[in-house]
Amino acid sequence: MLRTLALVPVVIAVLTAAPASAQMDTLEKIKASGVLVIGTRTGSPPFAYINRSNEWVGFTLDLVDELIKPEIEKAVGRSIRIEKKVSTPATRIPLLSSNAVDLIAETMTDTADRRQTVDFSLTYFYTGAQFLVKKGSPIHGIGDIADKRIAAQQGSTSAAILRARYPKLQLHEFPDQPAAFQALAQGQVDAYTNDGIQLTGLRAKAPRPDDWEVVGDFYSEEPYGMALNKGDAKFKAAIDAGLRKGFESGRYFALYEKWFGAGGDVPYPMTPQVKAYLLAQIGR
């Protein structure tokens, strides 16, 4: 009798755990619904933003649509559609962990700290943190910010770096890029720091681009990846396969040229070093 009673908690624990182990993985969820839900931005040109025609467009959206979506369709054996939800640095990991989205497809840096919570795809973009300032500003780089008011995005790697290096810095954090830029334009802060490419995109879309400058050497390394829930190996394999084929076929580089080339939305030429970095991921 005592032996039987001793087994009861074990049986209850197994039965309680059963639904969790039976939960569908992401590919099964997509197969059942026919929908890939991504978290992305509305104001981060040219990665993802709402254009003047009120369309959601951008480089990362093209990567998902042209490279990743076909591989997921192959994996699930059916056609799918893409549904977009707004994500920000502060909300993107909670969106993933709550299963509100399947994939974060925006300007998210792959860091060791974030890898404790989520997994990342192959790197699809490489940049570094700089500063956006009004033309003629005395700020020319990170060495000039000690007594200045600096804006950053909540949850960004640049905010974390500056907070750690300069604990007495006047750091003002904003929920998104438009809010940070508005504070800069209104003189509430002296500079806005973020990844160089994001600042370049923000400047390009400003009403008077020539009023602003992106300054300073990179003070961080920012390899962007697409984030997914940790341990979802089959889903990650499909995402990576899409990016890998894009690198191998050259389609990735054509899309890069579309958005970042001389005639693109935000000119930001790819250096030979960055191209070598991207191709090294696939053994090229």
Instruction: Output the helix-strand order.
Output: HHEEEEHEHEEEEEHEHEHEEEHHH
Number of domains: 2
Low-confidence parts, pLDDT < 50 over ≥5 residues?
A: 1-23
CATH class of the largest domain: Alpha Beta
Rg, Å, rounded: 22 Å
Helix residue percentage: 40-55%
> Helix count?
10
Shape: globular
Instruction: Outline the biggest β-sheet.
Output: 5 strands, mixed
Name given to the CATH homologous superfamily of the largest domain: Periplasmic binding protein-like II
Distance between the first and last residues' Cα: 66 Å
Side by side, the strands of the main sheet go: 11-10-12-9-13
Oligomer kind: single chain
- Strand fraction band? 15-25%
How many β-strand stretches?
15
Identify the CATH architecture of the largest domain. Answer: 3-Layer(aba) Sandwich
For this entry, give a set of tags:
15 strands, D-Maltodextrin-Binding Protein, domain 2
Task: Please provide a brief summary of the model.
41% of the residues lie in helices and 20% in strands. It is of the alpha/beta class.
